[in-house]
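Holo model, nicotinamide-adenine-dinucleotide. Inputs:
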Amino acid sequence: MIATEKSGERSQTAPARPAAPGATATRGVAILGSTGSIGTTALRVLARQSHRFHVAALTAFSNAALLREQADQFSPGFVGLVGDQLKATDEAGGKDWGCGAGCLVEAATRPDADVVSNAVVGAAGLDATLAALGAGKRVALANKETLVMAGELVAEAARLGGGELVPVDSEHSAILQCIAGRPATEIGRVVLTASGGPFRGWSRDRLERATLADALQHPTWRMGRKITVDSATLANKALEVIEAHFLFGLPYERIEVVVHPQSVVHSFVEFVDGSVLAQLGVPSMELPVLYALTHPDRVADTGVPPFDPVELSPLTFERVRATDFPALALGVEAGRRGGAAPAVFNAANEQAVAMFLEGRVAFMDIPRLIESALEAHGGLRAGDRAEVLTADAAARRHVAERARR
Ligand code: NAD
Ligand code: MG
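Output:
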């Protein structure tokens, strides 16, 4: 299991800053994608936990004004604006901001960053995850696409570099909390919960006519646009099944999905003796973001509203409508197939979702385009980073060309 390998050693890591007399040293956190939904949540958590953590680095893609505000508030040692050199110079206010894709790796490998919170969306986060793990850091991973496209390479980077991967995804955080250090041999299976997204009760006919505005109306979570669409197609749950496979070392037949519209039970773990544990709470990413920083410890925090089971009831569960939401089965099958198939699934999905967000393809074209890309390129190899990126590029090209017809 990647997630807990080094957990017992966490407190032995050297503190990032020398402690002033009488004060406790704080651990440095680099936040990649600090202007996004998870990134801003992470900064709220860090603001409450400033006696434990300080912000070592911040990066964003293009929202220079928000990045500037965050930099002024948290005074990180490094700030990087990936997508816009001009803005990086203008907004930096005389300071030296990094620019270009390389600044993700630069932020992720800063000596004063003990933890790298990877909250970038999509394959763009891969090199930073690999570099941080290679440099022996804890990666608090929201950027699930990284693990899906290159699970073996990510595991190898952790093994060689001594880094540690801890999930931010609420389902995987729940599983990690339920497992609580028990060995993999004691886990029977895990059941990931899925809200079902905005189209849970929709007929197939109606799904064919679903608009972008419909898809962006998630019933229980407020998130970035890409993951919101992934939640509507259930591609997100496929990414999460593959994520669970790599994080917890479980074969696919022991990872299941159940629809749970209230998003209160964050996932279940069934142990080999038949006992089932679940982790519950009001839907909020504050806890998983915090827990990824403090695991296996728990610290006092006020981020999550009080739990009232009566207020949150009833809690209901349904089977997934697999044929109406084909992206789930396509992704799980790609995971089972291995090689470059998960990278092709992920890249085809990213490309198809980007085109759906631009109004260039219909909602149900997303799984059709993924299936077509998997047929064409799912057999590619993924033995190293170059092969993974080749498969990623082939899938994106395939989807772009196919959608144009
Ligand atoms: P978002 O779109 O709100 O934010 C994405 C962040 O990444 C932004 O700061 C953006 O500037 C940056 N970014 C985008 N493209 C980039 C690129 N090419 N290079 C560098 N930086 C780039 O997305 P989000 O909802 O915060 O999701 C981030 C990740 O967390 C995704 O992988 C998502 O699946 C995962 N996740 C999100 C949630 C949630 O509640 N939002 C829950 C679980 C997992
Ligand atoms: Mg999730």
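The mean pLDDT is 93. The longest helix spans residues 385-404.
Archived with the compound record.
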